[in-house]
Amino acid sequence: MPASEFALSTRPATAWEERLHAVGVPCGRVNDSGAAIEYAAELGLDPVLDVGPGRMPQLRNPVTLTSASLVTPTPPPALGEHTDEVLAWLAADTADPLPPLRRADLPSPLQEAFR
């Protein structure tokens, strides 16, 4: 066993993390996914989004550009929820690259591009 590994084994990882941070050494524990989410929650980063009853929670984007919430989180579509609409759109005999109902949802510059 190398000397550094032996020395590190004498205390828990959290103790080494505290000691190293105290002297200005940036460090952190190596976590699995569950531990990383728990640690982010401990830091107040709110890593998980609740997207509705009966739906699996989703991971929140870790990058925050403003203190205001920009969008309300929504769950992903259920399996097959939009299959009929997508197949109808793909089978349509039209040169229009966008479904007609979606054109109105585009910002003005994109509306102009698709005219």
Task: Please characterize this protein's 3D structure.
This protein has six helices and two strands. With 115 residues, the protein is mainly alpha-helical. The protein has a domain of 39 residues. Strand 1 and strand 2 form a beta hairpin.
Q: What is the fold's blueprint, element by element?
A:
Layout: H1 3-8, H2 13-22, H3 33-42, E1 48-49, E2 58-59, H4 83-91, H5 100-103, H6 108-113
Antiparallel strand pairs: 1-2
List keywords for this structure.
115 residues, mainly alpha, two-stranded antiparallel sheet, 6 helices, 2 strands
Can you summarize this structure?
By secondary structure, this protein is mainly alpha-helical. It has helices at 3-8, 13-22, 33-42, 83-91, 100-103, 108-113, and strands at 48-49, 58-59.
**Helix fraction by DSSP (H/I, runs of at least 4):** 25-40%
Give the total of beta strands. Answer: 2
Major sheet details: 2 strands, antiparallel
Order of helices and strands: HHHEEHHH
Can you count the helices?
6
Largest sheet: spatial strand order:
1-2
- As a whole number of angstroms, the C-alpha radius of gyration is 24 Å
